[in-house]
# Entry
Amino acid sequence: MPDPSPLRILVTGAGGNLGRKLVAHLAEAPWCAAVLALDVEAPAAAHPKVRPLAIDLARRSPGLDAACAEADAAVHLAAQRPYPDATWADAAASFDMTLNLALALGDAGGPKRLVFASSNHVMGGYAEAELAPGTLTTALPPRPGTRTGGVEPERAYAAAKLMGERLLAARAEAGGLTAVSLRIGWCQPGDNRPGTMTASGIPGDPGPDTPEAARILRWFRGMWLSNRDFLAAVSAALRADASAWPAPAIAVNAMSANAGMAWDIGATRALIGYAPQDDSSREVAP
# Structure
């Protein structure tokens, strides 16, 4: 961020998997002055920097406006159902949350920074292709949807993320904020080790022992995002200088430095200064 002073950061979805990890990290970061931890029910706070807020993002409210006015930046993790099997009703509700936050933050006086938890599922259709390492860039046309056991990909969740990216691009062009959409890879709850990933997508269920299952597992491990690298990506996105960006809103991939993965993180390194430390191939025996 252009202002080097400590930041006051609003985190939506603060009670969820990623939210809890991020709030704890920000509370200990010297460059963070305060954390406004927002969820539909106020999450627990165990640090003096953290102030819990109970706000429903389903509508724009005075409470949301006040939180955005107080914050220097926001990280938007909240969703109606943060899983690829979300229904179209879930996806519409999640998009409304993104809309309400973007409008409130952009109108709050700024410039403000908005970091949006987009998803690898925006490009999920490329899982069926054979891609050379580093060639899956954000410049490629999106292919929303991921197969999660059915014949047809489930697209509602991915569509809400893609439309959220487009919304932030339009809102940032209007002024008042800059935005980073992080296309987050697979960041599991808890310790989040690549060895617990399975081809079925269900912890503890390895699925069938077939060449296709092995291919799917390689794809999953290629988009692993460690806890440490997730926190590094969000921190970098919050603090990056937007003056050299091609536009006031950008979308970048957020995966660990996994050897041989199709995902490109060169642009993520260049645009926000992301420096991942982990690699799924170093932690899982071939």
Notes: The chain has one domain: 7-283. Helices lie at 17-28, 62-70, 88-106, 156-173, 211-222, 227-239, 266-272, 280-283. Strands lie at 7-12, 32-39, 50-54, 73-76, 112-119, 177-184, 249-254.
